[in-house]
Amino acid sequence: MTNAVRWTGTRRSVQVVGLKHQTLRSRSRLEHNIVEMAQNPLAVRWPHDDPVVRELDQQIALLQERTLTDDDSPDDLVKRRLDYVGIRTIWEVRHKLRNFRQILGRLSVLLSGKAHGGTVRRGISLRLLCLLLVASSDDASEETMLDYLDWLDIGREVEREREAQRIWKACLAALEPTGGAA
Q1: Are residues 80 and 105 in the same domain?
Q2: What is the pLDDT of residues 62-100, one digit of tens each?
Q3: Beta-carbon contacts of residue 90 (< 8 Å; ≥ 6 apart)
Q4: Range of the domain at 25
């Protein structure tokens, strides 16, 4: 018999069959990991590789007239950002990005200012999405934006308050129906 995975009725249980010389404990761990991969794809899939993320990253780079470069952020930082705003699966990433597609573009332009050229890192759409979700939460305020930046230890501590204020204002302008246009 070849190695196989057999779903046992629900996505919450799986049975690995045909593995030789495997202890009950390691078989159980493998079965648990397979279920975890099915229920929580962000645990095993780098969100920057998702086609929706790649497309939006490219559009944002074009809006800013910049070149898209690889993101060297550690995987756990991306996951922490997404966890903070309650996103756990690649499906949720896609859903939120599609809902905020136009707003993400406006926010990227507002935050980049008038500067053009240079580079923007892959995954920019995920970073902007998290900022928008913090800014549109039920308890949203400049203070919650500062808490987010503090929690992720983003930027220099002495500049975080001013940066939180700048991001907060840009998010509010991007979320306005007119898109922050005067």
Answers
A1: yes
A2: 888 888 888 766 667 788 888 899 988 888 888 898 888
A3: 41, 42, 45, 47, 50
A4: 4-39
Q: 60 and 104 in contact (C-beta within 8 Å)?
A: yes
Same domain, 99 and 11: no
Residue recorded with tokens 């935050």: 111
| Residue 56 contacts residue 101 (beta carbons within 8 Å) | yes
- Nearest alpha carbon to residue 19 among 32, 34, 2: 2
Residue 143 binned pLDDT confidence (cut-offs 50, 70, 90): very high
With 0.85 as the threshold, say if the pTM is over it. Answer: no
Confidence of residue 52 (pLDDT cuts 50, 70, 90): confident
C-alpha–C-alpha distance, residues 31 and 13, integer Å: 8
Does residue 181 belong to any structural domain of this protein?
A: no
| pLDDT given for residue 30 in this prediction | 55
Q: Does the residue 182 lie in any domain? A: no
**Whole-angstrom Cα distance, residue 60 to residue 47?**
16
Q: What's the structural domain count of the chain?
A: 2
